[in-house]
Amino acid sequence: MPMNLLKPPPAPLASEPELLMQMLRGIEKEGLRVDHSGKLADTPHPAALGSALTHDSITTDYSEALLELITGTHGSAQDVVAELETIHRFVARNLRDELIWNQSMPAQLPAENEIPIAWYGTSNTGMLKHVYRRGLAMRYGRTMQCIAGIHYNLSLPDRLWEVLDMPSDPVSGRRSSGYMALIRNFTRYSWLLMYLFGASPAASDNFLRHPNHGLELLHGDTWYLPHATSLRMSDLGYRSSKAQAELQLCYNDLPTFLARMHRAVSTPWPDYEAIGTHRDGEWIQLNTNILQVENEYYSNIRPKRTVGRGERPVSALARHGIEYVEVRCLDIDPWMPTGISVESCRFMDAFLLFCAAQSSPLFPENGFCKRSNNNFGTVVKEGRKPGLLLDRDGQSISLQDWGTELLDAIRPYAGLLDQAHGGASYADAVAVQQSKLDDSDNTPSARLLAALRKDNIGLQEFTLQQSLRHHETLSAAPLPAETQEEFLGKAKSSIEAQARIEQSDKINFETYVAQYQEALKTALDVPAKN
């Protein structure tokens, strides 16, 4: 979008600061369990942490060894990071001879078929999650499932969309139209996040698995691209299959987005049909469609709505509209015990508010923005390249110039957040990002490579040292007795809840899967209500 279309924050935002106090944010932080030599843990999800199926703040993602720590929603960046730290402290104190790997690119991995897939028990709900992950292994490989990241979730109050004068779509309503506009602007500008926060410019050769990866040798078993910011978000990391690559999900409006998502989870793909759903009498994937389930689609941001047990995400979004957005492209910060700083969260708040408030023209090409995707792909692999040019509306512009203009446009939103919360911490968070544009050596990706060179070590050794330090810091910090008891109680009750679910099943798994897929037939019958 040409910079002359960027506009200052609407005046009503300044006159209603309580609206910005109603912004809610939550964090989902992934991290591999490893032993003290940095090898992937081959142990089950620790019983002391509760049930991965039913615990609301400690679960697993794709691999059994990939912890996912989930906060509630909070009215401030400081509070959400404080809860994330508390969860980390409890987990650290209950990991026997293990610790959390504090880097997005994986630890020392075993052979592909020895990477454990997450297990959620024998209930139909648990088996659905497990078989889905078996399907991911068949389609993309288990190694990719060991990549970790930060998901930043943000919701805005309904009144804000009125203040922003967001038009109300006749089908999906004002709120969902507003979030889709936010998502379009995020898609335009998310390359900036990769430059500012990308922290995975290197990878170990036991993750790469093959010799034709196109990276340069840095040290021992560590390979890198000289100007990369986030290999995790490149085609070496979270890569889509050919089937997904042909999907062009539309962010112009919610009904079209859902219709295309519905088609993807309902349409068979020849390569997956050739694999089938069973092997040697066991399920190996839920179905042979382009996507087994909606969450299989790899995207940098998702429109989200809380779903009930057995409910399809497309159904929830169609019935109730978008509840919040989930930003999925942030790397783990290797210098922070929690993987993300309060300062970074404050910048995310200002950035997403900016994306919500700015004019957001519809994408051409039936809702698919190839130019924005190309900019993103360029920055993750070459973001620190001197003189790097990006494509802004068909015209070349340097990353530094465009980034500085964007920060100038974001700065007033940081000021509004400071006005609402008090102090100058949001303005300070934006100022820190400007220092990275002024000198690329200040970016996390450059700092990581500089640390490896300074100590003449590889990524594995560096990350192990960092992870051990963070583990000691988190373990040493005492938890209040009532907090410890609360977590122990949640662990116990989650195990009991899993047992009740397993005992309550009245149908076999085959029938359950068939019903889950059958629910798609009526998933889009109810228009969104806002």
UniProtKB/TrEMBL annotation:
Domain of life where this protein originates: Bacteria
Domain Glutamate--cysteine ligase: 16-375
GO biological process: glutathione biosynthetic process
EC number: 6.3.2.2
Catalytic activity line of the entry: L-cysteine + L-glutamate + ATP = gamma-L-glutamyl-L-cysteine + ADP + phosphate + H(+)
GO CC aspect terms: cytosol
Group of enzyme by EC: ligase
A GO term for molecular function: glutamate-cysteine ligase activity
InterPro entries with a match to the protein in the record: Gln_synth/guanido_kin_cat_dom (IPR014746), Glu_cys_ligase (IPR007370), Glut_cys_ligase (IPR006334)
Record Gene3D superfamilies: 3.30.590.20
Keyword field contains Amino-acid biosynthesis: no
Keywords: ATP-binding, Glutathione biosynthesis, Ligase, Nucleotide-binding
Pathway(s) the chain acts in: Sulfur metabolism; glutathione biosynthesis; glutathione from L-cysteine and L-glutamate: step 1/2
PANTHER family: GLUTAMATE--CYSTEINE LIGASE
Protein family per UniProt: Belongs to the glutamate--cysteine ligase type 1 family. Type 1 subfamily.
Protein name in the entry: Glutamate--cysteine ligase
Highest classification ranks of the organism: Bacteria, Pseudomonadati, Pseudomonadota, Betaproteobacteria, Burkholderiales
